[in-house]
Every structure is written in C-alpha cells, then in structure tokens.
C-alpha cells in the first residue's frame, strides 16, 4: 500500500433514549389501524427504551493520516446529541416531533428521521448507516436508500 493511500474504517457510536408513540395511520380507519398495528395502536400510546447498542450511527471513510481517526468521537457525540437525543428523548413522537405529525412513527420511519437529521450535521458522504433496535428482537437498518412507491 502506498503512503498516500488511506485505510477505510467504519466507526460506530451508540446513544440511548426513551420515547413513546402510537402506531396509527391517518390513511386507515380505526378498525384497519387496530387490525394492522394491534396493541401498538393503543390510543394512549406505548413506550420504548432504546438502550445500549440500540441506536447506532456508523460512519465510513478513510482514516486520517494525521489524527489516526475516522472522526473525532467528541464531535460525533455532539452531533448525535443534537440530531437524536434532543429531539427524541422523553418525547411523545406523535405529538412532540413535527416530522411524525404526518408520518407513522414506526421504527423504519424513526431510522429515516435520524438519518436525515445526522446528514445535516455530518460531513457529506460520511454516514454509512443508522441502526435502531426498538426491542431485542426488532431491528431496523437504514442506509439512505430510496425507492419509488407505486
């Protein structure tokens, strides 16, 4: 490997937050929502503790030859605090986060929200994926991909 080549590395950091929500689509009737979302359609909502390695932002780029880092972890911590913890922690997603007033607050949409927020703060092209663990069994990974909805 030549001295001017950089090694690619992926850096991940996890954060913790708690939030509540109600899975409910304005496009469906109350009966259809109940059938689709079951107990997660409870009118009073339900909560999740997104803990430990349960929300991970992963960055990918060359290791800086001067600092030896993909990114300064202190900076990444601050970006994640601003993009994730501040808007989401101890919030009712449906009532306190304007994004979810028109978007169903599924974990899939939560991952997209987090991706979009981080993209605004991080250097262009560095964000590799957002991984959200709603529970020990339910995980969503979003890498910024889009598709055409028919």
From TrEMBL:
Q: In which pathway does it act?
A: Cofactor biosynthesis; tetrahydrobiopterin biosynthesis; tetrahydrobiopterin from 7,8-dihydroneopterin triphosphate: step 1/3
Q: Which domain of life is it from?
A: Eukaryota
UniProt key word Ion transport: no
GO CC terms of this entry: mitochondrion
Q: Which GO terms describe its molecular function?
A: 6-pyruvoyltetrahydropterin synthase activity; metal ion binding
Q: Which GO terms describe its biological process?
A: tetrahydrobiopterin biosynthetic process
Q: Which UniProt keywords apply?
A: Lyase, Metal-binding, Tetrahydrobiopterin biosynthesis, Zinc
Alphabetized InterPro entries for the sequence: 6-PTP_synth/QueD (IPR007115), 6-PTP_synth/QueD_sf (IPR038418), PTPS_Cys_AS (IPR022470), PTPS_His_AS (IPR022469)
Query: Which coenzymes or cofactors are required?
Result: Zn(2+)
Which E.C. number(s) belong to this protein?
4.2.3.12
Function, as annotated, reads: Involved in the biosynthesis of tetrahydrobiopterin, an essential cofactor of aromatic amino acid hydroxylases. Catalyzes the transformation of 7,8-dihydroneopterin triphosphate into 6-pyruvoyl tetrahydropterin.
Similarity section: Belongs to the PTPS family.
- Name of the protein this chain belongs to: 6-pyruvoyl tetrahydrobiopterin synthase
What is the source species? Cinclus mexicanus (American dipper)
What high-level taxonomic lineage is stated for the organism?
Eukaryota, Metazoa, Chordata, Craniata, Vertebrata
